[in-house]
Amino acid sequence: MAVHKLILDNVFDEVNYTLIAIHCTLEDYRLAYLLNKNLGISFKRKMCDLDLNSGKSSFSIFDWEDEKQLLTWSLVSNICVKEIYEVAQYQSLFNTEYKVTKTFNLVPEKKRVNYFLKIENELSENKEKYIINSILNIPQIATAYSIDTSQLKSKDNLIFS
User: Fold this and answer.
1) Phi, psi dihedral angles at 89 (to 5 degrees)
2) 103 backbone dihedrals φ, ψ, rounded to 5°
3) Which domain of life is it from (predicted)?
């Protein structure tokens, strides 16, 4: 009897997706609206934000499934700003709390990026360039560019489902 051996080394390692960084000062809902209008897509906000670090930080996320081309689009914020009350470290007669503003990033290597646009499944290079050029045509966006995901250390944070 013949023995058949299947080698599945790299089959499950990488999920193919395109990651586009967007730099702008817009609120998340305004950016989603402008992307919907200019790209002909239909982002909708998810019911629950993306929770990271057991509730310490949460990131807004919008998604849309393109059933014609079998693509899943996700727009996620990279920056979360939270105000936290901390007790003073010095000894005092009174308990003093003060407000501290902390900033968390979904992808710490890319701290200056405001939003990420993640498109799951294969995109041709021409389609990717078309999407980036369409995003750059929005006047409120400073810049947008593609990111090589193999260079990211915290790419596990980009797994949304």
Assistant:
1) -80, -20
2) -115, 130
3) Bacteria
Question: How many Cβ atoms from other residues are within 10 Å of residue 101's Cβ?
Answer: 8
Task: Tell me the pLDDT tens digit for each residue of 84-105.
Answer: 777 767 666 666 777 888 888 9
Nearest to 71 by CA among 104, 99, 43, 29: 43
Nearest residue to 156 (alpha-carbon basis) of 10, 52, 28 = 52
Rounded Cα distance, 50 and 77, in Å = 9
Tokens representing 6 are 């299947």
Domain covering 17-45+56-78+105-158 assigned CATH 3.30.310 in the classification: yes
Q: Is 153 exposed, middle or buried (0-12, 13-18, 19+ CB in 10 A)?
A: exposed
